[in-house]
UniProtKB/TrEMBL annotation, chain A:
Domain PDZ: 17-114
InterPro entries registered for this protein in UniProt: PDZ, PDZ_sf, Synaptic_Scaffolding_LAP-MAGUK
Gene Ontology MF annotations: protein kinase binding
Topology within the bilayer: Peripheral membrane protein
Record flagged with keyword Secreted: no
Record-linked Gene3D superfamilies: 2.30.42.10
Protein name: Tax1-binding protein 3
Compartments where located: Cell membrane; Cytoplasm; Nucleus
Domain of life: Eukaryota
Gene name linked to the record: tax1bp3
Keyword tRNA processing tagged: no
SUPFAM superfamilies the UniProt entry points to: PDZ domain-like (SSF50156)
PROSITE patterns: PDZ
Keyword line: Acetylation, Cell membrane, Cytoplasm, Membrane, Nucleus, Phosphoprotein, Wnt signaling pathway
From TrEMBL, chain B:
Name recorded for this polypeptide: Vang-like protein
Record keyword Cell membrane present: yes
Cell compartments where the protein resides: Cell membrane
PANTHER family: VANG-LIKE PROTEIN
GO cellular component, one term: plasma membrane
Key words, A-Z: Cell membrane, Membrane, Transmembrane, Transmembrane helix
Organism whose genome encodes this protein: Gouania willdenowi
Lineage top rank: taxon: Eukaryota
Membrane topology: Multi-pass membrane protein
UniProt family annotation: Belongs to the Vang family.
Transmembrane segment boundaries: 12-30, 71-93, 113-132, 144-165, 177-202
Classification via InterPro entries: VANGL
Length: 139, 485
């Protein structure tokens, strides 16, 4: 996320796998968070993105104690994949549909956030000679 | 004998030329003489004449020639106008009077020209009256250059035509009457064109704004900006003074005493004695005194702050009392309606009596307010009652009545004793008949204050165009929605 986001070019970021179990609420299944962003939305109004041209899907709100909160999702995370489907070039409505499929009980997300990148950088700095040997994490 | 006759003939041929040359010389002499008179008495450029002498001289001459100077332009204008009017008539009438038997008969075309002459002369008369024969609204220190130029041009034109008439028509007693009348028509046409030139030089040039002047009053710093056209310095001063009487609030010397007291206190601090042999207490603040008094300035700004805050509060309190008193006074009086005609006659008053009856209830509050804002000398009792009567006649609200007294109005609003309209002196480094230029400065001095005027030219503005196709206005909708999953 610290690189300049160019649509269509490959991105290398540090990601985290998060698995969320859907909860039955009334007659539909909920995940307990809200998303914002998409390629049909205005990226400059996104408070969580570093690069204001980034049109990805971001987590804007987490309901406390919900399935997402329990699974470790944090506010401001960018969702890169949902169940294997890429989320970086999606409209807002398509993203919502991918997350709320009635037939799936579990969603497996790949999310990225700045603190992950910083943590990797800190750990890499203490072993300067091994930086060239270890390429960046790719998922 | 024949030589004597020939001399007479030569003289007879050349008498118009002699008169012409004499007249031209006379005009130029008069023009320079007038300017010299004014230069000595009314300009401030001679440094070797002291100020008192000049002002004294000016005042004496002013008293003596008050009536004469005011109507001189009118007299000159009338004389020149009369000359211009009578010359074409003389050209047309003289041949018919002097050699009527030899003159050709005047056909239809020739009589048509009489019609043309009469109407053109009527138009010229009205035009000259409208432009020149008005009572002058001011007296300027020097003669206007353009007016003198136009008078000279007119007289030269008329003299040339007379010369031509005398030499080529009167002397040989020309019989072609049609040609003579056409000659007279051409003179009237030339006079109309000179009048057009006068309109352009004297009126149109002054209208188009070319310079922006900044006028600052020296005592309290009131500043105004005006746009004026291409004028001479004295005419610009006149225009600025007319704006001054309309826009600037009345000059109030009572409001300036506070800062004078402060200035006096700054200097009256410590006495410094010089023990090295110079005169003690010679009055100039030496460096030691300035630094010592600088230490006292720490309390001076404090004093000023609290004094001003206190003054503001006092004025606001008095103002509140005044507004309430006036509103109450206005409720007592009401315009008489139809149904009140049956009321007792002692209650029905005309407007002066109504004003007199209502005035005492607000007089005290008004007087106290005017004393606090130091404007009590501007309004006399009669003027207040007159204003009250005016407001009652025009159904004004109490607030409208009070506006005159709450803020100082333009100088013209007050009586003629405050105008000081004959005390203005124009102080300028450049000649006052020269035109305004970018960066010129001059001073208009009245008895207790000055108006400093600086001139800047209006910038040359370059405007470019950009065409926008009306179909090119297209918009995008940018959303940022949040969906909960």
């Amino acid at each position: 996320m610290s690189q300049n986001f160019v649509p269509g070019q490959p991105v290398s970021v540090v990601t985290q796998r998060i698995e969320i179990q859907k909860l039955q609420h009334g007659d539909h299944l909920i995940l307990g968070f809200s998303i914002g962003g998409g390629i049909d939305q205005d990226p400059s109004q996104n408070p969580f993105s570093e690069d204001k041209a980034d049109k990805g899907i971001y987590v804007t709100r987490i309901s406390a104690g919900g399935p997402a909160d329990v699974a470790g999702l944090r506010m401001g995370d960018k969702i890169m994949q949902v169940n294997g489907w890429d989320m970086t070039m999606m409209t807002h409505d398509q993203a919502r549909k991918r997350l709320t499929k009635k037939k799936e009980n579990v969603v497996r997300l790949l999310v990225t956030r700045k603190s992950l990148e910083d943590a990797v950088k800190h750990s890499m700095c203490s072993y300067p000679k091994q930086i060239q040997a270890k390429p960046g994490f790719k998922d | 004998m024949s030589e004597g006759v020939r001399d007479c003939e030569t003289f007879g041929k050349h008498w118009p030329i002699a008169i012409y040359i004499l007249l031209v010389y006379l005009i130029f002499y008069l023009k320079t003489n007038l300017r010299c008179c004014c230069f000595c008495y009314f300009s401030e450029q001679h440094e070797n004449i002291s100020q008192e002498e000049v002002v004294g001289l000016g005042k004496e001459v002013q008293d003596r020639t008050q009536g004469f100077r005011r109507y001189l332009p009118l007299a000159v204008g009338s004389v020149v106008g009369l000359l211009m009017l009578l010359t074409p008539l003389a050209f047309v009438l003289l041949p018919a009077v002097l050699w009527p038997d030899r003159l050709e008969a005047c056909g239809a075309a020739c009589e048509g020209l009489f019609l043309s002459i009469s109407f053109k002369l009527l138009i010229l008369l009205v035009a000259v009256w409208a432009l020149f024969l008005r009572p002058s609204r001011a007296r300027l220190p020097r003669v206007c250059v353009y007016r003198a130029f136009l008078i000279t041009l007119t007289l030269l034109l008329t003299m040339s035509y007379w010369l031509f008439f005398g030499v080529r028509i009167l002397d040989p007693q020309d019989e072609d009457y049609h040609g003579i009348v056409q000659f007279a028509v051409s003179l009237v046409d030339s006079q109309l064109f000179i009048h057009y030139l006068a309109v352009v030089l004297l009126e149109l040039r002054h209208i188009k704004p070319c310079y922006s002047v900044c006028v600052i009053r020296s005592t309290d710093g009131e500043t105004r900006h005006y746009n004026i056209g291409q004028l001479s310095i004295q005419k610009a001063a006149l225009t600025i003074l007319e704006y001054y009487y309309r826009d600037f609030p009345l000059h109030n010397p009572a409001l300036l005493s506070a800062s004078k007291h402060r200035a006096a206190k700054h200097l009256a601090g410590l006495k410094v004695y010089n023990v090295d042999g110079a005169q003690p207490g010679n009055g100039n603040p030496s460096r030691a005194m300035v630094t010592a008094s600088a230490k006292r300035k720490d309390s001076a700004h404090n004093e000023l702050y609290y004094e001003e805050a206190d003054y503001e509060r006092r004025v606001r309190k008095r103002r509140a009392r005044l507004v309430v008193a006036v509103e109450e006074a206005f409720t007592h009086v009401r315009r008489m309606k139809k149904e009140d005609e049956r009321a007792t006659p002692s209650d029905i008053m005309d407007v002066r009596e109504a004003a007199l009856a209502v005035f005492p209830s607000m007089a005290r509050a008004l007087q106290k307010y005017l004393r606090t804002t130091r404007r009590q000398h501007c309004h006399s009792m009669e003027s207040i009652q007159k204003h009250l009567a005016f407001c009652l006649i025009n159904n004004m609200s109490p607030k409208a009545f009070l506006e005159t007294y709450l803020s100082p109005g333009p100088t013209l609003q007050y009586g003629p004793e405050r105008w000081m309209a004959d005390q203005w002196t124009l102080v300028s480094e450049a000649s006052v008949t020269s035109g305004l230029k970018d960066g010129s400065e001059f001073l208009l001095r009245c008895l207790d204050f000055n108006l400093a005027v600086t001139v800047k030219s209006i910038p040359y503005i370059r405007v470019t165009e950009e065409f926008i196709d009306p179909k090119s206005h297209k918009f995008l909708l940018l959303l940022q929605s949040e969906t909960s999953v």
